């Protein structure tokens, strides 16, 4: 039994290749089933997002398991197996567990510490579980990974500090105003940075947003996509008289907001303060505009300092989380090792208790006149003898589970006591559905 993780991510492949290997939402269930029916695959979970496609499997052999997963990805994407190999990271055993824990807790994301991947990993696991492609190993391991990531986010501030310029711009507005959900915002520009700023504003509860752009059709498209207002660049002076916050990110070579413009509208201003956040290069807001009363201007350099400081804070939190991963790996390995021990201990106890039961039957035949109380005393004492005799062998069996070549040593242990333990891991066709809802409830309760 071997744990394998195969990852195609933002480090190994560009966006065009990642798009090819990604699984569409309506095919992920059938893809899990398809992979599960493949030779050598005992359990599997598929994660597919815009930044990564990951396949986790329990396989009976490393080489065949890895090959069949890569062949599966090639068939799904239309690429050759060699192409998949070239853009894949392959992790086995402890490295695979380490990778799963890092990905789930956001340590492997483009934006360090982002929390969205936790929900995506949880959903990927739920889908695989619902399709019955997980079993004993993954039902335990993915619960452990999700629990670990949730705990890491709760106990550190890794996700609390803005590390993108557009996000930092909105966070700066929060620092200045305290609350911004009741503020009027203007976004100048209709490109990618403007859209990110718009999403961050809406995510912070700001609904009164107007997009201003020289090409009105672009402003209209962006505004309609997100349910906000739009206007032409000529409307900007009038809009500024009633605004609280402006985020500007155009590609203009000229200043969009000038000292002259602000001087002319200052007497008409209805609100106390106007915060201008200029994330454009070259700048959209004329320098020294701060000289105007109650107008505060921040540019990319101001935000960069905030982002850099926040990134350092995130890295410190990430280091603290990463330091906990080795003990999580040890805990997983200890649990896996005990899988082989538990059936052995159970078989030993069953044999011992059968002997005790047969002995009591013999006593009943030879001493038929024993009272019920006398029989209970004898039964209790014979069970006590058995438990004392089993104490050291059971302890030894548990220790054997954590030793090298544990399978061979446990087999010898069974031969010594003439017992036969059942397989701890059910076969593919022996999976039971009964425990799924309980496990799903447990994982959802971590939120």
Provide structural commentary:
Catalyzes the NADPH-dependent reduction of glutamyl-tRNA(Glu) to glutamate 1-semialdehyde (GSA). Homodimer. Helices cover 56% and strands 13% of the residues. By secondary structure, it is α/β, with parallel strands linked by helices. A 6-stranded parallel sheet has the order 7-6-5-8-9-10. Strands 2-3-1-4 form a 4-stranded antiparallel sheet, sandwiched between helices. It is elongated and about 115 Å long. The mean pLDDT is 88.
Q: Any descriptors?
A:
447 residues, alpha/beta, Beta Polymerase, domain 2, Rossmann fold, 6-stranded parallel β-sheet, 4-stranded antiparallel β-sheet, 16 helices, 10 strands, 56% helix, 13% strand, elongated, EC 1.2.1.70
Query: What is the CATH C level class of the largest domain, in words?
Result: Alpha Beta
Q: Which value, in Å, is the CA radius of gyration? A: 32 Å
Based on Cα principal axes, name the global outline.
Answer: elongated
CATH topology of the largest domain: Beta Polymerase, domain 2
CATH architecture of the largest domain: 2-Layer Sandwich
Order of helices and strands: EHHEEHHEHHHHEHEHEHEHEEHHHH
Going by helix content, strand content and strand pairing, the class is alpha/beta
Number of domains: 3
* Spatial sequence of strands, sheet with the most strands: 7-6-5-8-9-10
Give the proportion of residues in helices. Answer: 55-70%
| SS element count, helices | 16
Function: Catalyzes the NADPH-dependent reduction of glutamyl-tRNA(Glu) to glutamate 1-semialdehyde (GSA).
GO biological process, one term: protoporphyrinogen IX biosynthetic process
Site (Important for activity): 99
Catalytic activity: (S)-4-amino-5-oxopentanoate + tRNA(Glu) + NADP(+) = L-glutamyl-tRNA(Glu) + NADPH + H(+)
